[in-house]
Specification:
This protein has about 400 residues and is an alpha/beta fold. The protein folds into two domains: about 25-155 and about 290-360, Rossmann fold (3-Layer(aba) Sandwich), CATH 3.40.50.2300; about 155-285 and about 375-405, Rossmann fold, CATH 3.40.50.2300. Helix content is about 40%, strand content about 20%. It has 14 helices and 17 strands. The strands form four sheets. It has a seven-stranded mixed beta sheet with strand order 8-7-9-10-11-16-17, sandwiched between helices. A six-stranded mixed beta sheet has the order 2-3-1-4-5-6. The protein has a two-stranded antiparallel sheet with strand order 12-13. α13 (about 320-335) packs across α14. The chain is globular. The protein starts with a helix and ends in a 19-residue tail after the last strand.
């Protein structure tokens, strides 16, 4: 019995050391606890895992570099996680739990605009800052929140490049016809609004404008219209499931369009999963490892990608990069505030002007980042290659897309 008890104590100790808290306990360094409800199950689970990975990677890196200085003390970071199950109502409940029961004073955001929309009223109610990296809906920043800050570019910027490219390629931009299919959720509908605004500038005609249900698993009706009306460009936004559905059904139905642009290509892994049928697709993204951004914590954008891939053994999604940037923003704000008072931290966040491996981060009065553009990848020879904006392009755009009989 004594031997068994001793063995059990060893296992408990090993489990505790593996929890990530051992370094804090071993040297008695005080801890700043961040809270996060992320989607580890449900329809956003793949992106939720990327979000958590990004948070964890930045926390680990900061702690390895000696922690965060606040006034005359040094702190380590720790994240308290819950699974929001990809459900807004659950996300709001967990935000309340983190603040009221767990005593967390600083929140990291969930994945998706819908979840951020559900949690923001809770953090605002309690005066708790939330730095989020994966809720891009422009509508979030029109509600007057004072404690919400987003490191990523907003939805109205996501597919602006696709409209610009279509206009440049056309002899007369006003004759360009656009077909759109967007999931009926806050993120995708805000992307749609941005596309409409950009299309109006050129006088382009919208020939298909479909709102599709959540869990975007069937686009066949939309694609039938596309085959009939022959638009010049098809634009799709439905998170990773919508991107996968679009590629699969466009190939199955042999739908020909001169340009295809969508969101969430990389998180849906369209190049890896669908091979040649994903070629030529334009993909909106927040970040790429090839960009020239850098900072003292991670080094260059490419260095971050090497670290992520060696840690998680998968390609680096931009959702992870922006999540790591959110933790960097908190660390910077804690130091500049010189205090852990949530109001002081909030004020420091509001005055952020930070260069990171992910890009420049500077918040306007609404809490959105006004200092970083989006980019467009194109799938070329099975790889995601930056083609827009031209000053960051790794390769020339391949356009128009050849018909299926020539591919």
């Amino acid at each position: 019995m004594k031997i068994r008890m001793a063995a059990l104590m060893v296992l408990v100790t090993i489990g505790f050391l593996g929890s990530g808290l051992s370094a804090v306990r071993a040297d008695d360094m005080p801890v700043i606890r961040l809270g996060a409800a992320v989607s580890l199950s449900g329809k956003y689970s793949s992106n939720g895992v990327y979000t958590r990975n990004g948070y964890d990677l930045a926390v680990r890196r900061i702690n390895e570099r000696g922690g965060v200085k606040v006034g005359d003390k040094i702190y380590k970071l720790e994240v308290v996680y819950y699974d929001d199950e990809s459900t807004p109502a659950r996300g709001a409940q967990l935000a309340e739990r983190l603040i009221q029961q767990d005593g967390v004073k600083y929140l990291l955001g969930p994945y998706s605009s819908g979840l951020v929309e559900a949690m923001a009223p809770v953090t605002e109610k309690y005066g708790v800052p939330m730095v989020e990296a994966n809720g891009a809906a422009i509508s979030l920043f029109r509600k007057g929140y004072k404690y919400l800050f987003a490191v990523l570019s907003t939805t109205d910027q996501y597919l602006k490049g696709a409209v610009d490219i279509a206009a440049r390629q056309a002899a007369d931009p006003a004759k360009v016809k656009i077909a759109m299919a967007f999931e009926n959720d806050p993120f995708s509908q805000d992307v749609r609004d941005g596309v409409l605004e950009d299309a109006r500038k050129y006088g382009m005609k919208i020939v298909v404008d479909d709102k599709l249900p959540p869990e975007l698993s069937d686009m066949s009706a939309t694609l039938t219209k596309v085959k009939l009306l022959k638009p010049d460009i098809l634009i799709v936004s439905g998170h990773d499931k919508g991107a996968a559905t679009a590629i699969r059904q466009i190939a199955d139905q042999r739908v020909n369009v001169s340009m295809l642009a969508m969101t969430h290509c990389d998180s849906a892994q369209i190049a890896e999963r669908f091979g040649k049928v994903a070629e030529y697709t334009l993909c909106a993204a927040q970040w790429a490892p090839s960009l020239s951004y850098s900072d003292d914590l991670f080094g260059k954008a490419s260095d971050y990608a090497v670290l992520y891939e060696s840690t998680y053994h998968e390609p680096t999604p931009y959702q992870a990069a922006e999540s790591s940037a959110a933790v960097e923003v908190y660390a910077d704000a804690f130091t500049r505030a010189g205090s852990l008072d949530p109001k002081a931290v909030r004020d420091a966040l509001a005055s952020t002007n930070l260069s990171t491996f992910y890009g420049s981060i500077k918040f306007d009065e609404t809490g959105k980042n006004i200092d970083k553009p989006t980019i467009l990848y194109q799938v070329q020879d099975g790889k995601y290659v930056v083609v827009y904006p031209e000053e960051w392009a790794e390769a020339k755009l391949r356009a128009p897309i050849p018909g299926w009989d020539k591919r």
